[in-house]
């Protein structure tokens, strides 16, 4: 698919550059649909002013969705959501003794009025795909491309099923 404009529409923020090994899956998912993203390292705890400033200026820079990956206490998605009107998607990162459960709960349990969409632990690919779906409301070409993506997945499942052979019930 061709690119949607020349500037990034999605901002991807992570608390550490070590998170890039997971968060690159969001970048790859967006690239599959021609959506450009910008990437930033900013910590909710170590550089809170940087994170807040990024969120406050995101919309003016043309961004339409933010994706934030965070581990442990996982405050980054919520901090970004507190400082922007843009939708924020949180990616809980597997880390620490609880292997990401702490991150998942921290992101999913946002207080009323500060929503953050939450995907699975290390679910950066789904975060990218969810961003594409959100953008599809404004960009019909993304909506159509996503429809094709889902149809392709369905065909792949049917092809795998056909390889199992007969006899089987058909639904």
UniProtKB/TrEMBL annotation:
<comment type="function">
    <text>Catalyzes the conversion of N5-carboxyaminoimidazole ribonucleotide (N5-CAIR) to 4-carboxy-5-aminoimidazole ribonucleotide (CAIR).</text>
</comment>
<feature type="binding site">
    <location>
        <position position="19"/>
    </location>
    <ligand>
        <name>substrate</name>
    </ligand>
</feature>
<feature type="binding site">
    <location>
        <position position="46"/>
    </location>
    <ligand>
        <name>substrate</name>
    </ligand>
</feature>
<feature type="domain" description="PurE">
    <location>
        <begin position="8"/>
        <end position="157"/>
    </location>
</feature>
<dbReference type="Pfam" id="PF00731">
    <property type="entry name" value="AIRC"/>
</dbReference>
<dbReference type="InterPro" id="IPR000031">
    <property type="entry name" value="PurE_dom"/>
</dbReference>
<dbReference type="InterPro" id="IPR033747">
    <property type="entry name" value="PurE_ClassI"/>
</dbReference>
<dbReference type="GO" id="GO:0006189">
    <property type="term" value="P:'de novo' IMP biosynthetic process"/>
</dbReference>
<keyword id="KW-0456">Lyase</keyword>
<keyword id="KW-0413">Isomerase</keyword>
<dbReference type="InterPro" id="IPR024694">
    <property type="entry name" value="PurE_prokaryotes"/>
</dbReference>
<dbReference type="GO" id="GO:0034023">
    <property type="term" value="F:5-(carboxyamino)imidazole ribonucleotide mutase activity"/>
</dbReference>
<keyword id="KW-0658">Purine biosynthesis</keyword>
<feature type="binding site">
    <location>
        <position position="16"/>
    </location>
    <ligand>
        <name>substrate</name>
    </ligand>
</feature>
<dbReference type="GO" id="GO:0016829">
    <property type="term" value="F:lyase activity"/>
</dbReference>
<comment type="similarity">
    <text>Belongs to the AIR carboxylase family. Class I subfamily.</text>
</comment>
<protein>
    <recommendedName>
        <fullName>N5-carboxyaminoimidazole ribonucleotide mutase</fullName>
        <ecNumber>5.4.99.18</ecNumber>
    </recommendedName>
</protein>
<comment type="pathway">
    <text>Purine metabolism; IMP biosynthesis via de novo pathway; 5-amino-1-(5-phospho-D-ribosyl)imidazole-4-carboxylate from 5-amino-1-(5-phospho-D-ribosyl)imidazole (N5-CAIR route): step 2/2.</text>
</comment>
